[in-house]
Amino acid sequence: MMGMGSGVLKELLDEGGVSFKQNSRSFIMSCPRCLKPDKVYLRKSDGIFICFVCAEVDGFRGRAEWLLTELLHRPVAELRTTLYGQTETTGSGVLDLQLQDFYEVGVDPEPVSPPPMLEVDPDPGFRELDTEAGAPGRQYLEKRGIPVAVAREYGIWYWPQEHRVVFPVRAGGRLLGWQARYCGRTTFYDRETDAPAKVIKAMTTPGLKRDRVLMFGDRLTGDHAILCEGPVDALAAHLCGGNVATLGKIVSPQQLQLLRNSGIRKLYLALDPDAYREAAGVLNAMVDDLDIYDMRPPAPYLDLGEMPMSAVVELMASAPRIDRNYLFLYLTDHHART
Among 79, 102, 125, where does a domain finish? Predict the structure, then answer.
């Protein structure tokens, strides 16, 4: 990296009062996220860092500015000017970091055992959509414009006992959990009290940390990502590729780091129209690192999932590139039907 050197890194750490150790290759310090001592290694030669705990949990690794902004509480753009003599940078793709790259030559690294993201087994009650028991789930998805062939590609199930369509969350091919969407009537009358009651529309696997994963994250293999809220929205963008879901309006720092580490160069914001504050937050956090495009669904669509797949492709093609000064607006009658 141009302008990078161990001297400027050490100067920044010293000025910020950051306590660290060092070997011939790396500065070693406590992680600002997990707070575990001696787990962050900041390579002197190029400023690449990794936390050997958080890298496994939420992808906390990459260029020096992403570590220093959390250690020093200084803006990323300002840190880039100090580190590289510029504020613009083009990303270096997916980082393949090996433990020994941060240790001294001839020194065997101590074993590190970061807490793994545990793989889970599907519920025994899940049924394939192609089966007779899976027919209600297949019909629900088809009504939402999702053909069974596409659903099969994503490994979606139906859960007859719960009347839910099950959208898996995988990383590296491993099943980490799922979100199950109810596809029956959401309001009914309780038999005992005769009072109206509601069912929970979306259920997420207990223990799955939604802020540390991206649903369909394994699809981030190209130069862009389409950031959606829910699984049906993301499936509507199937033909675009790179379609992922945050499982809610809130986009966490860990999810943003996963996007950075995926090697994408373009980020399409396809959050729901009423998530304008969240979209603005993603823009401010990522605009220095990626090209950002506004791909929110136009009126009167409630979300991307209401649009035909072909219309979503057209929306992506016409999405405007936006900068830090872009103003996100949301009109209260956005969803008005004519």
Answer: 102
| Angle between helices 253-261 and 276-286 in degrees, nearest 10 | 50
Is 167 strand, coil or helix? Answer: strand
Of 179, 208, 237, which one is at a domain's C-terminal end?
Answer: 208
3-state secondary structure at position 297: coil
Residue at 1 is within a domain: no
Residues recorded for the chain: 338
The reply to whether 244 and 170 lie within a common domain is: no
> Is the pTM higher than 0.85?
no
Q: What tens digit of pLDDT does each residue of 127-144 get?
A: 999 999 999 999 999 999
With contact defined as beta carbons under 8 Å apart, do 42 and 29 qualify? Answer: yes
CATH number of the CATH domain containing 168? 3.90.980.10
| pLDDT one-digit tens code per residue, 183-195 | 877 665 556 666 6
Q: Which residues contact 180 (CB under 8 A, 6 or more apart)?
A: 159, 162, 164, 165, 166, 167, 202, 203, 204
pLDDT digits (tens, 9 = 90+) for 38-87: 999 999 988 889 888 877 666 788 889 889 988 998 888 888 888 888 64
Distances (CA, A) of 264 to 223, 224, 260, 286: 4, 5, 7, 12
The boundaries of the domain holding residue 69 are 6-102
